[in-house]
Amino acid sequence: MSRYMFGHFGRWMSRLRLGIVGFAALFSFMVSPALAQQEPARVYSFTLKGWFGKDVSETPMAQALDEARQLEADYIIITVDTDWHQFGDPLKSDLPEDIIGQFDQFFRTKKMIPLFQERMLSWERKPKVVFWVKQAMGGAAFLPFMSDTMYFHPDGKIGGIQGIFLMFGGQGDRVVVEKQISLRLTTAQGVAIQNGYDPRLIEAMTRGDYVLSYRLVGGRPVYLERMPQGPDEFLLTNDAFLAGNKDSIEELARGRGVNWLTLKADNAQVLGVSKGTVSTMDDLLFELGIARNHVMVGDGDKIMDEWSATLRRTEQTLSRLLKEFNEINVQGEWNERRRARGRQQALLQQMIGLLNRYEEAIIPWQINGFVRAGSAQQVISAFRLMLQRIQLQQLADER
Question: Model's pTM, two decimal places?
Fold first, then answer.
């Protein structure tokens, strides 16, 4: 091969190398910066703890979600770890008011739904909402179904809502009772359907007379509204009102009964409700694929804690004001009686103001001194009548 040919070949190879380098540089410019310069996911988190309908309420949740919007969060992680107690046998008709009284937990949940639906529609940057379930018992059981992404803690549980069904138990016309139950179920089931969950799970969690089994086909559950009929079928709930089917108190307390469905980490994943089981926030971030590229923003827990602390102070203030009111004696000369009544009216106005401000979360009968009190609105109405009576007494009081 001549020197000319070698030279020509060398120039050709040089140009080829330059072309390859140029293409590599172009590819690197197009692809690598997108990966290397990708902004970390902005993660906003807060924990729903305390009592549902009180510590867990619309106002602090709205404030936390508003902060997440302002901070342009890509992910909102909501940990559910609420307080709950099983009071005795749920099949008894004399259920304590703690479970079924004072507020209807279905309707409290309904008030929270717009926070995750209509309100988020106006957000310019739509976040991924993730619920991490530690303990979602009682009214809080419906909250995780507001998202299509749910993870469980190894000890996580969803359930304890049988009291809502039993609030009608044994009372009234059966058709009327069924209609009332259906009205309450519709809201929760609608949310479940919207986020990809089978509505029969809500019914199994709520109704004691509902029988539900399942079998797995291709790794997915197929639900059967009857008792299991083969070794490949598994019972979720039986009819609690049939003789011999009643769960023991211990089974109920530990969420192991089959009268009402309790979702736990294992069965929730089998049924496709849970995306997975994680023990820590770091594990959850890993499952979401953002463990190595995220930044935590905001302080949602501070908002929730401040709300709870404010409620406790308000309850203490209401207890003190009522005590002062009860200690006032309207007696003595006309000016003394007038001053006493004026003080009574001022105290009543203060209490009405506080009850109005925190009506969504104040449960009067739980406040020291408010014996046998009804809802906040009922107490407000009673206080207004007392105000009118005091004013009439003063007008009728002669010097």
Answer: 0.81
